[in-house]
Every structure is written in C-alpha cells, then in structure tokens.
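> example.struct
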C-alpha cells in the first residue's frame, strides 16, 4: 500500500495525528474481517473531516495519492452504510477521477445507502448520471431502487420505476421475476393490500400471474403481516384456483398458523404432508413445527420430530439446531445445549454453528469474562462477526457495567465497518442514561444525529428528558456560582 507522504505532512496536524493513530493501531479485540489499510485510512480521514466543506475533503483525498478502484470504493462505502454524507463525498470524489468509472456494484451500494437514509433527491441524481450509461442499471440495482422507495412508503414512485424498466435498458414489465420483485418489496414493507390489488389487476394481462410463485408472494405478505383472516382467505383462493400449492405455499401457511398459536391446524397439515408423495415436508417446515412445539413448552415432542425427520431422510440444518438451542437456553438446559453445539461442529456443512447460534449462547452468559470464550469458538469455526452480534455484545457489556469491554467492542465494530448503526447508538444512549452517565448518553446522541440518523420515538423522549435534567443542573450550578461571588 502506498500513502503519499506529502499528503500526510499537508493535512492538518491535529487531525492527521488522530487519523494515523487509528490507522496504525488496529489491535485485535474480538476478531477482524478482511482488513484494508487504504479503506481504513480513508474511513478515518472522512471521519475527522465530516463537517468540513466538500472541497476541503476532496483536496485531502487528492493529496493521499490513492487511486480508486471498485474493491476499494465498495469497502469504503460499506463502512459508511449508516452515514450517507461521507459516503457520498467519497463516491463523488472517486467518480471525478478520469481513470475510474464506477461499476454496477458501486452504484448499487451508494443508491442503497442514500435510499436507506431517505436521500431521494440524491438518488434521482444518481439515476440521471446512470442514464448516460444504461449498461450500469441491472436487475440488482432495479431491486434496490424498488426496495428503497417502498421502504420509505413511496409506493406510487416504486410502481412508476417498475413501468420505466425499458427506459433503464432492462426487459419490459412483462418480466415475471421483475413483477414478483415489485410485489415482494411491497409485501415486505407492509403494503400487502396494494400488492394484491396490483396482482389481481394484472391477473388476466400477465400469464405468469397464474403461476403459484406469484400467489406465494401475496400469501407470504399476509402471513408475515399476521393477518390470519386474509391468510386463510388467500389459502382458499389458491386451492380454488388452477394452481397446486407447492412446498413453499405449505411452508408459508404452516408458519403463519404456528405464529398465531394455531398449532393444531399446523400439525394437521404437517402430518398430512408425510402421506403426500408429491409434497413431503422439507427441513424448513420441520424447523417451523419444532420451533412452535418448543414455544408451547412441548420440548420432548420437538426433540421427537428432530429424531423422526432424520429417520425419514429430511436432514436437519443449522436452523433446526438453532430452534432447539434457543428454547433449551431459556430453560437453562445448558448441558443439552452444548451437546447439540458439539453435534453441529462434528456434522459441519449446513449444520455448522452460525451467528444466530452464538447469539443464543452469548445471551445465556452470566458474566463478561465468558464472552471471549464464545467469540473465540465462533472464530475457530469460521463464523464472521455481524452487526447483530456486535450490538448484542454492546448490550451485554452495558448490562454488566463493563466499560472497558464496551469501548473495545465499539472500536472493533467501527474498524470492521459493521457499524455503529442506529441500534448501536440507541443501546449506548439508553444504557449510559440508565447507569447515571448522562454526559456520555448526550455525547452519543450528538454523534448519532450528526450522522443524520433518526431517533426512535422512545429515544427522542429520553433525550428531551435528559436535556431538561442537564439544563436544570446547569442552572443550579450558575446560581451557586453567583452566590459564591456575592460573598
């Protein structure tokens, strides 16, 4: 890696020392992802110049002598997934260099970041840029665009983008996968009624609307929404249609019934499937039934299903084990838990413990010194850290009052580009407040809002309360100072 020495001398002395201190000191706390010195250097350069004018940031980047490429730009952008401004500043700087035209994956990442932070004016600017190079807009970018507009509840704009497929150089709207993508994101963000209306409106226009896959998208939408009445209605509509339910249809409906406590209905369908040679239960359906039985505290029956599925040739996967481990941890049957974990490690393949497994183990811990053992086991099995695991570790250290562990976890998470995100800041703000550290809580609040993150309603109420307390203390202190000066 080459870093321009002249750039280091030219950058402001105070900021540069801070950048280099972070750049060279990457001590291992938990365990690291792929480490890119250039991306780490740029991340810190942007961090310490976050509030500076764009021209000054670009000048500092120019002086580094770093030449952007897709891998580097993607790495830097991914480190700023919850901080759109430095991401956009860096993207614009990289795009200006004559030797580097950003590729599809880079545009997809920046559109995802901007859309996630509701910066749709900038998203439209990106689309205008990309329209000059139509080969840039592929199905992945199309899906990201639809997702981000729907996530922001801009349903009409999302549908409009779908109708503009040909303008973007993609296939026309008769593309079945594209239509299902639109329906999927509408359902995912709770616009199921609009999705079903769109589906029925096009039922006679698009032949693929008679495909069970398209019906499944709508059924899944109602089921995820938890609307049992509409789920049952659509299930009956499917049975009355020309479509035959497939394994995914059964899986979706059985899962919905178990979530609503209709275990009897789910078990009746499940047991009936074993008699149907054309559509036997798969591992997903078995996992769903196991989880539902465990939830109802029918653990012995769940363990029996676990044994039966192996005998019937339906091999368990990591989710099967995770369902059992989750509930066994809750009832503190830790000997059985670690017996299953060891079985997973021996079986390997699709059964190797994942981040979810280790999250359950972490949640079962009683003291901070136990954390490292789980994380080392996680690393030993080749399981990468995720933002969810980092946030869980933060929550645990906060609960135990281990400030040193908390600091190290935060620094490692930041260095690996897996946060901090809104959840991380929420944990820190509420945790510090509950432990009487109001100044620390307010510091994280200011840092969070400076990145354009939106507070959760409960955090907003808390900050209003803390601000009042801080003002009250300040007023009392000023009154004391006045009295002292009058003596």
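> example.seq
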């Amino acid at each position: 890696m080459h870093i321009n020495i002249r750039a280091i001398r030219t950058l402001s002395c105070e900021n540069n020392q801070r950048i280099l201190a972070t750049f060279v000191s990457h001590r291992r706390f938990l365990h690291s992802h792929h480490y890119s010195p250039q991306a780490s250097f740029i991340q810190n350069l942007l961090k310490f110049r976050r509030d500076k004018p764009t021209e000054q940031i670009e000048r500092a980047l120019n002086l580094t002598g770093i030449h952007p490429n897709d891998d580097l730009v993607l790495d830097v952008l991914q480190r700023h997934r919850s901080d759109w401004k430095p991401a956009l500043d860096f993207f614009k700087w990289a795009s200006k260099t004559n030797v580097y035209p950003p590729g599809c994956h880079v545009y997809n990442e920046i559109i995802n970041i901007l859309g996630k932070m509701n910066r749709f004016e900038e998203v439209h600017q990106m689309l205008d840029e990309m329209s000059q190079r139509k080969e840039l807009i592929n199905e992945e970018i199309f899906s990201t665009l639809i997702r981000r507009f729907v996530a922001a509840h801009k349903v009409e704009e999302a549908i409009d983008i779908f109708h503009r497929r040909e303008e973007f150089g993609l296939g026309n709207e008769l593309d079945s996968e594209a239509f299902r993508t639109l329906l999927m994101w509408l359902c995912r963000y709770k616009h199921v009624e609009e999705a079903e209306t769109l589906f029925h409106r096009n039922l006679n226009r698009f032949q693929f609307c008679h495909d069970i896959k398209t019906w499944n998208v709508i059924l899944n939408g109602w089921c995820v929404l938890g609307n049992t009445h509409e789920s049952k209605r659509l299930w009956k509509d499917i049975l009355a249609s020309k479509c035959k339910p497939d394994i995914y249809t059964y899986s979706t409906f059985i899962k919905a019934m178990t979530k609503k406590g209709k275990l009897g209905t789910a078990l009746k369908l499940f047991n009936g499937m074993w008699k149907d040679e054309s559509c036997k239960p798969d591992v997903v359906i078995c996992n769903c039934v196991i989880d539902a039985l465990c939830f109802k505290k029918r653990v012995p029956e769940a363990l029996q299903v676990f044994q039966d599925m192996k005998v019937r040739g339906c091999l368990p996967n990591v989710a099967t084990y995770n369902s059992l481990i989750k509930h066994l941890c809750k009832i503190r049957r830790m000997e059985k838990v670690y017996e299953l974990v060891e079985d997973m490690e021996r079986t390997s393949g699709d059964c190797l413990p994942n981040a979810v497994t280790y999250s359950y183990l972490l949640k079962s811990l009683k003291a901070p010194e136990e954390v490292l053992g789980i994380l080392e086991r996680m690393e030993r099995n080749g399981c990468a850290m995720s933002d969810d695991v980092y946030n869980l570790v933060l929550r645990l250290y906060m609960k135990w009052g281990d400030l040193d562990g908390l600091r190290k976890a935060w620094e490692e998470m930041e260095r690996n580009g897996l946060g901090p995100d809104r959840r991380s800041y929420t944990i820190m703000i509420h945790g510090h407040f509950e432990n009487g550290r109001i100044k620390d809580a307010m510091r994280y609040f200011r840092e969070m809002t400076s990145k354009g993150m939106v507070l959760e309603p409960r955090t907003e109420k808390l900050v209003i309360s803390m601000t009042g307390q801080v003002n009250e203390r300040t007023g009392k202190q000023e009154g004391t100072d006045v009295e002292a000066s009058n003596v």
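> remarks
The two ends are 65 Å apart (CA to CA).
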